[in-house]
DNA sequence: CTGAAAGCGCTTACAG
DNA sequence: CTGAAAGCGCTTACAG
């Protein structure tokens, strides 16, 4: 039989209220009484029922996390960062993905209504920003790990997309490259615009101009990265460096170049964005996004909000780092 | 203000008990009454509080999942499979990792004591098998995704390690290879013994003998895979194929071979195990473990147990598949 | 400093 | 078929 607060109270010869007080570190408990209660708690190995505490207090010390899918390369890193941070505060993490589309979202919504968690961490699944904003407006504390430049109306964590792209540009120019091509991500993502602007800006400051015909749109997949590169080569304009807006695209770029007999990095340098595990194995030069740290920062933001702090209006910005490897 | 069962009852002019009955699909409720209650529920958008239901019923419709770390390549796949399966039954997934070692485990243990979840899915973190068995013996429903051949005393899901290794052996022999080397995983893992036995058995049946000096121990990391390969080459015995016990090791093998000027697969074929995403990008021939399916199967097993079914004594076995790519 | 009582929002025998 | 009451295991005013 599970031991309850009533049993502890009886054994310690006090009321349940007093046990509750020492459990929660409330002041105004006689030192001797508190010691006795603590002793009993230790003796019987009492741990308060999470469910009962949750119901009585109206909050569960549990946070929900909504992500598109754990299959995406760096999602695990973000979740790991969040879990670590939450865990050290004793919070649990309820994980939701949108892997099964609308059905997943419906399940998630019903858990929101059931108040299964106190606050929400989210990496925006496609086309859900307005829904998430609704939840926030209805009073659910929300923090977003913003990987696509959506700029929501609530606290978020982002990276320096623009500055990361600038670093890539400066590095390539310093390495002697002059003819640049870019394989972007989906044009409607804020982060894509920032990466493109930062890259072109930095090049401009260095007196390097990029031919618009050498900027082609990808969709963050390896396949489209390869297709885009073929398009680039077919255009007939010379280029000696490609900036891809994420690592998966960059891998596609590398493949297409190799297939066409162009040597990386001798003929063409390739730089990606993200620094997913595969980037290391492929020796890909890339702009690192601190995914783990983003998860941690988001969790901290949410926890402080749950503890009553007022969240910052502006996004928390984490720095990117240029990781120079073999390809560029 | 949140709407409660009391409000629904009042609006529908019935007692809370009756609302509860229609909510839970109990029989013996007048059709008209039930319809009226359902109408009110829909009108006010009532969703029962997960916490209150959990307390009253003594179970939370939530499952815990304990994994070593989300950083490990295929953990995300397993978790995704589990989440999908649980979600379709309306269950939540509380995620725990052991990324911070003993501290993590202590937090996990306290959540177990607090009865934060009804059952546990686990990929065994290092040296925790006996602890997990204790939890099981104390009555917590547990299902293990057994990636290392531990054979616990409770339901588990495994893959055909032996048969996967046999398939690799047959494939390599059919491709004309005759001189085999093996880079194993940690020798104390059951799966490592199975993969080695299966490989050597199949070769034996085909009349091929493996020199024991060409079997070296790795630890499932790329670094040690490379080191092991150098050892292999230093031994001076010829070999034209390497079977590595996981993909990360295989990548190390490939690197070391390339560094030594040996061409893959012309000089040496390389076959791995797992089929993590990087394997595809590296064009690595490998034995695929259906990680997603393992997560799904484990979740189904646990759910049926929670619904009252008696779990199978023997492990559920999922088949591996040989994925032939460029390296072997 | 401490206890009795009410309340959190449900479910579940027990009666009828 | 339905309701009143007790109970799940805590927390929190309210008194003293």
- Beta-strand portion of chain A reads 15-25%
Shape of chain A: elongated
For the record, give the distance between the C-alpha atoms at the N and C termini of chain A, rounded to a whole number. Answer: 64 Å
* The CATH homologous superfamily of the largest domain in chain A: Response regulator
- At the first level of CATH, the class of the largest domain in chain A is Alpha Beta
Give the helix tally of chain A.
13
Please name the CATH topology of the largest domain in chain A.
Rossmann fold
Structure explained in plain terms:
Chains A, B: Keywords: DNA-binding, Transcription, Transcription regulation. Chains A, B: Residues 3-57 form the HTH lacI-type domain. Chains A, B: One of its GO terms (molecular function) is DNA-binding transcription factor activity. Chains A, B: This is LacI family transcriptional regulator. The structure is a homodimer of 328-residue chains. The termini of chain A are far apart. The radius of gyration of chain A is 26 Å and the shape is elongated. In chain A, helix 5 links the parallel strand 1 and strand 2 (92-97). With 328 residues, the first copy, chain A, is an alpha/beta fold. Chain A has three domains: 5-48, 434 Repressor (Amino-terminal Domain) (Orthogonal Bundle), CATH 1.10.260; 60-159 and 291-319, Rossmann fold, CATH 3.40.50; 161-288, Rossmann fold, CATH 3.40.50. Chain A is 45% helix and 16% strand. In chain A, the strands form two sheets. A six-stranded parallel sheet of chain A has the order 2-1-3-4-5-11, with helices on both faces. At the A-B interface, helix 4, helix 5, strand 2, helix 6 and helix 12 of A face helix 4, helix 5, strand 2, helix 6 and helix 12 of B. The structure holds a DNA duplex (16 and 16 nucleotides).
